[in-house]
């Protein structure tokens, strides 16, 4: 499967942005160019929701950023060690998998520490004494497993090693001076006398080497005194060496000062931390704090950028967050060429038509692809929306021609479908002023000056009256917080081809002068003005750049 390529419209998406992203992703996938997936950068409006429901299509997934995260990198899905694992088993696993370190987790897979080969080697080089198994709280199962021992008798009360480790290499009387209750003794050879003395000393565990056993009589005595007896195939030297490897990794692992990363951490953050630390690798945790792997500097440096196709925009301010870190492969748009920058050459298709979906439909036709009825339906919806049912001055004969072809494929009546769309999309009932203003809001920069322009299509301008005071207060706040000259809201009646404009911010005079109108209570009528792109942006551009 090829890498996923995200097909994205702009922020505060309108119907063209969403529908063109879905249709163009379908087109790209069908021609085998990319494994394209449509995404959205914000909440869809009611009009778009109506279009998608009408043609039984799902809302694209929300993508908040294309900044690289740890989850995007090829980090090691390493084996996670349990805290009880023996050093012997851990060393064997690390050799098999060529690991220099491994995370250690608790019973709930939460990170406890980090075990490295240096931890193990340093432990052997240090002066471990005969109480090391006791100090490490070593489970009896670890000792049995490490020594490949068979159980002759195991007392149920013996859970962990509670005493020192000895080797029976002297007379019984001499050994008695050194062996204490609960100690562990490795017995080399067939030495019943030594076992007798150990029983009297009340040791907790006797380890017989060379696969030897003891008489039933002695074993019964051991059982009576609750002394466990096991037999290992190793000789005495090997048994004394191997038993140290029964220590659980929890005892030697690095516990404090651990530096970890979450799968949700950005690569920028990871690079910053790695530049200040010098660990060979770092544990990776998921959102539940569970260990899922480890990551190294090499994997961070070799991370692949996310791939993006942009539709219906080519301005950086309208693109997805982190776009500067992504690889832009294509741009399909019908707006002015703006300030987007790319790493390398891209396929840039921009046409002076009223809607991006018109261009997408042409792509299907140029490649001889049959347009599916659902794709035809949503592209038709986008064209109707952007051209205001062909009444906008941005509408071209190409838009009208393509729309009629799409309507035939989708099996809908253009006029009826358009009116239902606008009716569903222009209702302001139940919306907050923030939702109304931001559903189709764009910021424009003109040299050192900037302004914000929002447009809402509605079939009930009079119904906006209860929102006016609160809306103007919100618009003024947006203007001042973003250091803009003004913000303006166009309430556009697409049926009667007129707009009502509301202006807030420090310099409303720019709007009044640009349109040669008098603002009464920060409001004015703009008959015939229905296109933000052709009838509003050029006018305020001239006013702000003079």
Task: Explain what you see.
The protein is α/β, with parallel strands linked by helices and 546 residues long. It has 4 domains: 4-66 and 306-421, inorganic pyrophosphatase (n-terminal core); 72-125 and 251-301, CBS-domain; 139-246, Udp-n-acetylmuramoylalanyl-d-glutamate--2,6- Diaminopimelate Ligase, Chain: A, domain 1 (3-Layer(aba) Sandwich); 433-545, Roll (Diaminopimelate Epimerase, Chain A, domain 1). Helix content is 36%, strand content 20%. It is built from 20 helices and 22 strands. It has a 6-stranded parallel β-sheet. Strands 7-11-10-9-8 form a 5-stranded mixed β-sheet, with helices on both faces. Strand 1, helix 1 (15-30) and strand 2 form a beta-alpha-beta unit. It is elongated and about 115 Å long. The model has no long low-confidence stretch (mean pLDDT 89). It catalyses: diphosphate + H2O = 2 phosphate + H(+). Pfam families: CBS, DHH, DHHA2, DRTGG. Its cofactor is Mn(2+). It is an enzyme of class 3 (hydrolase). Its EC number is 3.6.1.1.
